[in-house]
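Q: How do we represent a protein-ligand complex in a form that can be generated token by token?
A: Start from the inputs.
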Amino acid sequence: MLYDINHKKEKIEGLPLCFQNSIKFSMMKNILKGATLLMLMSVVACKDNTKANEQPSTEEPQHQEETVIEDTRFKVEIESNDQMQFDKKELKVPVGEPVVLTLTHSGKMDKSVMGHNFVLLKQGVELQAFAEKAALAADTEYIPVEEEGNVLAHTKVVGGGESDTIEFVITEAGKYEFLCTFPGHYAIMRGVLIVE
Ligand SMILES: [Cu+2]
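Then emit the structure tokens for the protein with copper (II) ion bound:
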């Protein structure tokens, strides 16, 4: 197969330089291989080039006053670990105000073997009886459906390196028990939330 490059050159002059270069490039390659794919590639390259040469838009993004809303919610953190412990036995939060609670798991173990959650019970709920039912509720992350009415707030179950944040409001001052309902954990992983 022979190509008269000069003849073709005449034909392609008058096209934008970008196309000329692409076409020349394609013709050369065509001698060795089929040109279709290469033509396509050249066109794509040409388009990219065009984009790069575009002037940046002079349109100013709509300027808006930024309003920084200060997060005044009360924040509380509780940590858990691979030794089946919470780092706090007592938490204090204000009554009637939004509380943002974060449970973190600083260990490495998977949630299937050392999972933890934070479950806050209504006053008057018998913790041990609740925990024993909860331990069987693996399908609902150890929150038994029939006991949901006894739970004021709860996180999901977290494993090592994970955390979960919840928000709740307690409208009555007093002491509330919390626990981890992962099977076998409640005896150690429990404490009191003081609302005042
Ligand atoms: Cu636990």
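Strands lie at 74-80, 90-93, 99-105, 119-121, 151-154, 163-168, 174-179, 190-195. The helical segments are 5-12, 17-32, 36-53, 111-114, 127-134.
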